[in-house]
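Much of our argument rests on the idea that a fold can be written as discrete symbols. In the encoding step, the backbone of a single protein was reduced to a row of integers, each denoting a local shape. This step matters because it turns folding into a mapping between discrete strings. For completeness, the protein is quoted in full, as a sequence line and a line of structure tokens:
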Amino acid sequence: MTSRSRNARIAGLVYLLLVFVGPVRLIYIPSTLFVTGDATATASNIAEHEFLFRFGIVTELLCGALLIYLVLALCRLFKRVGQAQAALMVILGGVMPGVIFLINAANDAAAMILVKGDDFLTVFDKPQRDALAFLFLRLHHQVDVAAEVLWGLWLFPLAILVLRSGFLPRFLGYWLIIAGISYVALSFTGELLPQSYDTVFSIGSIPRLGELAFVLWLLVMGAKDRTTEGLARKN
């Protein structure tokens, strides 16, 4: 195995871990514990399944760390392709989303404290604590919606690197661009037309599979061992 293919598979492995860990708090826990519009039922579910909710917080912290390792691994893979695009990829895909994961972990921690009703919270009655906990969960969702802009924008410099690389198929780069557009459209829909968010999410499911296709290619096929002479290096 060449060093380039090894770097590609390392990046693919980290990316795959993120693919498995990310949906735990983003999809599984909300669908399992949260009751739309019902703060009391949601708080009761969180209290009853405290370990699961806390596990969701841990996965958010893990996602923040994995993102940093991922963009660094991708930088190593594309280090001779384009420095400006690689730097932009690190900022949009690693640093900023990583911070957002930490912020949302704090939002969930606040909700957990309110649900448990520690002694210093006795100034609030239970319905008030439940409502405040629900507010933090809603805030978590709104932060996710805003963060989807970054989830999309970081794919653009990554796609450019793929297209310029010469050692990965160009169709992956074009698919990543389409996936990036899908994420940005989803975020804007969530802010402007929240009632249409679920519809746009469903429509964009296939375009967003570009990320999974990229991951599987890195893991299974690696990267071609050939020179990149003549590639554009404008930064």
Observations:
- Residues 44 and 57 are 18 Å apart (CA to CA).
